[in-house]
Specification:
Length: about 425
């Protein structure tokens, strides 16, 4: 595509010369601009991918892939329904649960609590919980009536440990001639879990299903069934099959999948991700304009050289290709440098943040605000390739106008006073 003499002349123009210091400086800034734009795009998209995947894995791991809510909010034949649903192919777990809100008090502190009643064997199947027990054990959970499990951030914040008592207060209590008396019960902390999602580690409390039935006055009923599939992406093909099964074995109800339950949240993440890509692409666009400025100045400085080449018989198309090589090299080198820096930071983003926090004393990542205890980052090859293609494409386009102007140089006018 490019001849030997074209490459030779282009690479000579790329060499740093003392009499062209300003042009060289602008070219270096253009290269760094491309590199920084590519680096920022790769790091940002990787962090947002990791943010989405971490939240998705924790939300699904905590709540299952589908939620069946019986008509009236309660169901008594749940054991039979669980057995029938488990026979469906690709259904791996069906957990009967009860969820209710309460006020948790310990000492002089009170916090809102989302209490979930679940059977001990089912809790052990929730690997997001059972594999992340930081203190205590699940071995005793369910053997007593007053067991409860809390999150690590809550325990750390209020200095709680296994063996401590937590009192739950709910307005759904006994009805007396003087009104409804709130129900108050004390429970012993048997284990402390940490899943890494701030809301779960501070607000969720687990108690045995039978105790939850008593506390929330469900008798021998449950409030919902959590259904987990082999993979969350199987929702589309499995939803109608599971829905048909629930209609046959229960008296009505509603089946919701994780996409509906968290649609607003994950749609907002997707919109934010797309907007960030567009906004940060303007960093590359600004660097591209720097390339145009650099190439125009270089064409201006090399007008005499171009005129001599034309008189030697070099075609205008060859001149255009020479300056295209010069501008493209700046874009290619900047893109390669930015890609390497972006990948290095994306794969080590948490250690880098930890180092900066230690050096500056600033808190750069608040789990309370961002829901996750650490900065996640997942590098997707396809997205990196898109960033590289965008950077290279803009860089190549930026060289066309200056290269075209160089090709239009009139050798007679340029050498008239030489």
């Amino acid at each position: 595509m490019f001849s030997t003499h074209e490459r030779m002349v282009a690479f000579r123009y790329l060499k740093i010369r003392s009499n062209e210091g300003f042009v060289t400086l602008v070219a270096l800034f253009s290269l760094l601009g491309i590199a920084i734009g590519v680096m920022v795009l790769i790091v940002t998209m990787s962090v947002m991918n990791g943010f989405r995947e971490e939240l998705l894995s924790k939300v699904i791991g905590f709540n299952g892939h589908m939620l069946y809510q019986p008509a009236g909010g309660k169901m008594s034949d749940y054991d039979d329904v669980v057995r029938r649903l488990k026979k469906i192919e690709n259904v791996v777990k069906v957990l009967p649960i009860i969820e209710g809100h309460a006020l948790a008090t310990f000492g002089s502190y009170s916090v809102p609590a989302l209490v979930r009643g679940v059977r001990a064997d089912d809790l052990k199947q929730m690997t997001l919980i059972s594999d992340n027990i930081k203190d205590g054990t699940l071995g005793e959970f369910g053997k007593g009536d007053n067991d409860i499990i809390i999150g690590k951030r809550l325990a750390d914040k209020y200095n709680l440990a296994p063996g401590d008592l937590v009192t739950l207060v709910t307005p759904r209590g006994r009805i007396t001639p003087f009104g409804t008396v709130p129900r108050i019960s004390s429970y012993e902390v048997t284990a402390i879990f940490e899943v890494g999602e701030y809301n779960y580690d501070t607000s969720y409390f687990f108690m045995p299903l039978k105790e939850a039935q008593t506390y929330f006055q469900y008798d021998d009923q449950v409030g919902a069934l959590e259904i987990s599939l082999t993979h969350p992406d199987m929702i589309t093909e499995m939803f109608s099959q599971v829905q048909q099964a629930t209609k046959q074995i229960s008296r009505g109800g509603r089946l919701i999948d994780w996409r509906v339950l968290n649609s607003g949240f994950f749609n907002a993440l997707q919109v934010e991700r797309n907007v960030m890509f567009i906004i940060l692409s303007f960093i590359i666009l600004v660097a591209v304009f720097n390339i145009i400025s650099t190439m125009i100045m270089m064409v201006k400085n090399k007008t005499r050289d171009v005129a001599i080449l034309r008189t030697m018989g070099v075609s205008s198309a060859s001149i255009m290709r020479i300056f295209f090589i010069v501008g493209s090299c700046i874009g290619v080198l900047g893109t390669i440098l930015g890609t390497l820096m972006g990948l290095a930071i994306a794969y080590n983003v948490q250690p880098i943040l930890d180092f900066i926090e230690r050096m500056t004393g600033l808190s750069l990542w608040e789990g309370e605000v961002r829901f996750l205890s650490e900065v996640p980052a997942i590098v997707e090859t396809q997205e990196v390739m898109i960033v590289v293609i965008v950077a290279l494409g803009l860089s190549f386009l930026a060289t066309l106008l200056p290269a075209w102007r160089a090709a239009k140089v009139d050798p007679v006018k340029s050498l008239r006073y030489e």
